[in-house]
Amino acid sequence: MDIFKATYSDWPIAAAQVLMRSERVRVHLRRGPSVELPRKKAVVLAIVAHYLDGVRFRAVDEYMLSFEYAGKVWSFRGWEYLTPDGIRDYLPLRVEGKRVLDVGASIGESAVLFAFGGARMVEPHPVSYSILLENLRLNGVSGAVTAVNVVNVAVGDRDDDVHIKERPPGSTYRFEAGSTGPIVAVRNLDTLTELYGPFDLVKMDCVGCEYGAIGGASLRGVRELMIEFHHGPEGLLDALIGKGFHCRVMHRRYYYDPRSDHPCLDLGYVYAWRHD
Helices (DSSP H) in 26-164: which residue ranges? Predict the structure, then answer.
C-alpha cells in the first residue's frame, strides 16, 4: 500500500476500493487532479507515480494520461499498458545524433524519447503498434512517423512469419507465437540493420526473445546496447562479450508473474558498449 500512500491523499479509501475489487475508484492525487477511474487504471497510476519520482500529473481520464517528468510533458493513450520504467531507465542514454533501433517499442514510452534522435522502432503486436503510432503523434513527433521507420514486426534469431496469440480485452499486449491469429513477420537484427540501419545504439525489451536475437546477430557497427533481460543476464553476457562488448548488469530484481510460461522472472538490464 506504500505506492497508494505516496500517490493519493485519500489513499486508505482508494486502497480499500481496490481491495474490494470495485469496478471504479475515485482518487485524489497528491500532485494532480481528482478523478474517477477503472480499478486497473487507479493501480497503474500509482505505479507511474512510484517509478517516476517527482512526476506531476496534468490531465488524467480513462483515455489519456498527461504528466510532467524530467523537464518534459509526456502524453499517452492506451495508458493502462504503460510501463513507467520504460521512461525512467532509458532517460540516461545519450541518443542525440545517434541512429537508434528500439526493439519492443510497445505503446511508445521509450520511443517518444528516442524519436527526436531519429530512432527506428519495431513493435510486433498490432494493438500496441497502433497505439504507438497515435502516441508518437500525440507527443509532437508526428514527423517521426513518416521520417522514422515504425515497423510492425517481431525480432528473433531468424527470419520467419508466425501467428500471434490473440488475447482478451484488458490483458497486457505481449507478443507470443501461436497456431492461430494474425500473422506477424519475424526478422533478425541483421535483417533489420540491412533494411533500416546502420545503428549506433540498440534498445531491446522483447520479453524473452533477447537471448536468441543477440546470439544470432553479428551486431556489426553497433556501439551500444541496452537490453532488458527476463531470465537472467548470463546468456546475454556470454554472447556480447564474445562479440567484443564490455558489459554491466543494472537494476537486477526478481519477480513472480503467474501469466508467464516461466513465472519466476530474473529481471534487469545489460548495458553493453565497445569503442572499436
Answer: 39-51, 85-88, 109-115, 126-138, 142-147
